[in-house]
Design brief:
By secondary structure, the protein is mainly beta. The chain contains one helix and twelve strands, in the order αββββββββββββ.
Length: 262
């Protein structure tokens, strides 16, 4: 009797799941790998002290894509920093982003504009010529062009960066390396929830040309993950959901020119 009851229960569960699948349609997850790309960038930064332990900086960065064959985007950034003590600082910032869309035909490409607001919480310690720092950056991307269905209007992320610097004695050179992990905090419906959208590995060198100028040359290796959701909606609700998980490996060579006043 117990065996018959178990069989009936299993059949009913299968029938219920089959009916639910028929009603909700198909849910399919596809994983694809996008060809790797070389995306160099260059930026200029100006920093001005405005009060004790306070400073303001403005930066403009131009990025390229498709193996450096065309412009990808331009970032215009302003930041206000406060050094609370020798080992902790807070920076708030705003970035105006101009992003060139990825149309295959030149005349179909157009600029999209979005805004980013972020807060950097940085702790650091020094050991002789070594410096170790940890930076936590919560941020939000405001995208007026998004439809709120396939792309979030407000994209929230948090990025964690662990960095080590070494001041080479009797030189003006400072090599450094860091690892940064970027996590999404919200995703579109049926996107599978928050995920790691980028891992970044960096090797760089900073050269103090003078008291007012420095130059940085760096290399990034990025592992980027993205998710694209498409579905059909009707009177019976949402059905035929397709979640495409994409991964791409990016090589970035960057050059930074920094100017500042003591």
């Amino acid at each position: 009797m117990n065996r018959l009851r178990a069989v009936i229960t299993a059949v009913m569960a299968f029938a219920a799941s089959f009916c639910a699948a028929a009603q909700n349609g198909e849910y399919e997850i596809i994983e694809t790998e996008i060809p790797s790309d070389f995306q160099p960038r260059v930026d200029v930064d100006f920093e001005i002290p405005i009060a004790d332990d306070f400073s303001f900086a403005i930066n403009n960065e131009l990025r390229f894509r498709d193996n450096c064959t065309r412009i990808d985007r331009n970032y215009l950034q302003g930041t206000l920093s406060y050094e609370t003590c020798d080992y902790f600082s807070v920076t708030s910032g705003y970035i105006f982003q101009s992003v060139l869309t990825q149309g295959d035909i030149e005349y179909e490409r157009q600029w999209q504009y979005r805004h980013r607001v972020f807060l950097d919480l940085k702790a650091e310690v020094e050991f002789d010529d070594w410096k170790l720092s940890l930076t936590e950056r919560p941020l939000v991307n405001l995208r007026p062009w998004a439809d709120g269905i396939h792309d979030q209007l407000d994209e929230w992320l948090i990025r964690s960066k662990l960095k080590v610097d070494y001041d080479i004695p009797k030189t003006e050179l400072t090599p450094y390396a860091f690892f940064e992990l970027s996590n999404t905090l919200n995703t579109v419906d049926y996107g599978g929830g928050p995920f790691v959208d980028r891992m970044r590995f960096c090797l760089g060198m900073k050269w103090e040309v003078s008291d007012f100028n420095s130059i940085e040359l760096y290399y990034y290796f990025d592992i980027r993950n993205s998710r694209d959701v498409s579905y059909t909606s009707g009177s019976s609700g949402i059905y035929n959901i397709f979640l495409n998980k994409e991964r791409q490996y990016i090589h970035i060579l960057g050059l930074s020119f920094n100017f500042g006043l003591d």
